[in-house]
Amino acid sequence: MKPKQRYNVDSDSTPFNPLLFNRTLSQVLKMFIIPEIENRIANGSLKKEALPIEIHQFRASQKREADGRITPIVEIDEEVQLVAKVKLKNKKSPGEAITIQDIYPEEFFIQPPMYDGKPAGYFYWRSMFINEIFLFDLEHNAPDQFLPDLPTKSPFPILEILNADNFIKVVKPLEKFRILVNNNWPPAPGYYPQIINKMHIDPELITDMSFMELVSSIYNRKYWINKMDLWAETDLFPNRMPYIQRAINAHYQDDYIASIHVIVPQFEGIITDYLKNHIENIPDIFTRKLQIMKDLCLSRKVILYPKEVLAVILEFIDTKAFWKHSELVKDQKVEINRHGIAHGAFTGFENKEISLKLLTLFDALAHVLLNDRVVLGNL
Fold it and tell me: Is 105 helix (H, G, I), strand (E, B) or coil?
């Protein structure tokens, strides 16, 4: 590893940069994690049938051997055994258990892995449902003359991790995604965690008229500006950003006819474009394209979010209102339906709810495509 500045996405002193985050993660996967998975398959310690591995955390580092060779060390999921240095509020006896109440969380630091008594730089990544943290500390890979220029070590976000783990256990966000689908709301990353939490507190909320305004408050203009910047920087949707930008701008101008009719054709076009980069023969039937898209995502070595989330997003596009026959739609002002819109079967349905649902569904599709590119290592 070459010495680089440490980057902690949760550090108050380091502005979050989604492009840097995803691009760095993509390269670490390509350099460390994917080769490790391939090595484990080759030596028989991992079955190929188990792919993709749904990774929850990993740590990657390098050990310098006595002969100067560099050996990559990769720990995945339960193999990761972090050692922390903490500041105690009260003195403890050796061997006495320590809880989060006994420490100052803002002074919780992860110690680097030790090889032959020497510390090594590392990358650490952890999943929190569809959120994640990614940090690294490469100080110990740097020559001594570089050390004074390296930034101060950032604390490990232990409270955020513990709260996220407890949230997932208690709130069960995947169940809430299913509830969203059953109520004609697309399962999308923006719902997590605020809206998911409110659904847990009030199970009837999703049937209330205020739910649309809640979704709208999360999917606000700032949210979309940040997403469009990321999509443009990663070239996620080649030649389609003007359409996406027009649809989002029209939504905030209350021009729902424009926002809906501009965004609807982009789903099939974007999926078709993506498939062209990976397979030769593209089927004409859109539902078949969706199945191939799902198969592609599940053909990778790893996946960085729950497989069930991938399934529920693509199922919504495939089997729910979006793609079913327009004659089966009970309320065109509530159920988004590609057939009814694209073929002109519906009129007078263009409203804020339909526009918002289509945009959030687009965000869900973008989440799938971006993550697929990240694990491919070509971001």
Answer: strand
